[in-house]
Inverse folding.
């Protein structure tokens, strides 16, 4: 496995591999969710293709400086995990080598990025789209693999590649969960033990809404209220950042829920913000 820190060194080294080239973009602090993406990428790449994993805590997608500061950084462990999971190339650049001091161009998606995380994290998806396009340009993958926990991110990236004719196939991989149902996230390590024990209520809330919908409830207001009550029953001070029910494709509000939809939430435990979602069939 090769570790590359300078963007200029990528093209020369990547020439050593046959197609296909599969990219797994991450911000590090790798956990089982990321490793599932890596396994999927390895399968797609086969024996002769190339799996590239990027480790870069992208400053431009953080709206809160304290979130950027506290984002877990575990480079040595990440590299070890990449090595043991069949990654061919780790690209781990310094921020200074990715953004010029006077950088002034960014990618703005102006529909799907408005609700959910986009509404409460101004500029977040501009930062995501910009870094993802830069990583695509630097690594020129055939396929890039993303987790479905970030449903909106996946939708925004698919839209960016469609609208800008970016020749990269985007694959979404199912969310990996802890045994108690909590979606795996690098942020979970920042929860106190009590918050960690409380946080699976996020999944329970979405499941409760899902099951009410399966039993015939189509009112978005009622489904949201079912989920809200489960989250607000917290004893650890969980606070809802957003809880919304949206059309699965357009990410516009939907009521009644008679087409494929998504119920998505972000919940704060102190400064730790956790997201999760669940798809509802129409
Ligand atoms: O999902 C993430 O970890 C990040 O948003 C991504 C896609 C690596 C871009 O920085």
């Amino acid at each position: 496995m090769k570790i590359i820190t300078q963007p200029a060194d990528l093209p020369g080294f990547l020439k050593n591999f046959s197609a296909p080239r599969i990219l797994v973009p991450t911000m590090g602090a790798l956990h089982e969710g990321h490793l599932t993406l890596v396994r999927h990428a390895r399968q797609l790449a086969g024996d002769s293709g190339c799996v590239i994993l990027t480790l870069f805590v992208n400053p431009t997608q953080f709206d809160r400086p304290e979130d950027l500061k506290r984002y877990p950084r575990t480079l040595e462990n990440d590299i070890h995990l990449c090595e043991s999971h069949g990654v061919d190339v780790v690209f781990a650049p310094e921020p200074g080598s990715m953004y010029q001091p006077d950088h002034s161009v960014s990618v703005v998606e102006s529909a799907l990025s408005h609700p959910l995380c986009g509404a409460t994290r101004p500029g977040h998806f501009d930062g995501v789209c910009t870094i993802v396009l830069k990583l695509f340009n630097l690594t020129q993958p055939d396929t890039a693999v993303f987790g479905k926990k970030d449903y909106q991110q996946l939708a925004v990236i698919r839209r960016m590649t469609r609208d800008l004719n970016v020749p990269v196939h985007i694959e979404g991989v199912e969310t990996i969960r802890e045994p108690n149902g909590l979606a795996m996230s690098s942020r979970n390590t920042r929860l106190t033990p009590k918050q960690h024990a409380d946080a699976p209520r996020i999944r329970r809330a979405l499941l409760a809404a899902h099951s009410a919908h399966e039993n015939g409830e189509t009112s978005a207001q009622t489904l949201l209220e079912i989920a809200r009550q489960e989250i607000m029953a917290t004893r650890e001070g969980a606070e809802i950042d957003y809880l919304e029910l949206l059309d699965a494709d357009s990410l516009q509000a939907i009521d009644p829920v008679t087409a494929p939809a998504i119920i998505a939430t972000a919940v704060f435990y102190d400064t730790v913000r956790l997201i999760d979602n669940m798809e509802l069939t129409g």
Residues 2-173 form a domain with the Rossmann fold fold (CATH 3.40.50.620). The beta strands are 2-4, 21-26, 50-55, 89-91, 143-147, 169-173, 239-247, 261-269, 272-280. The CA atoms of residues 14 and 71 lie 29 Å apart. The first strand starts at residue 2 and ends at 4.
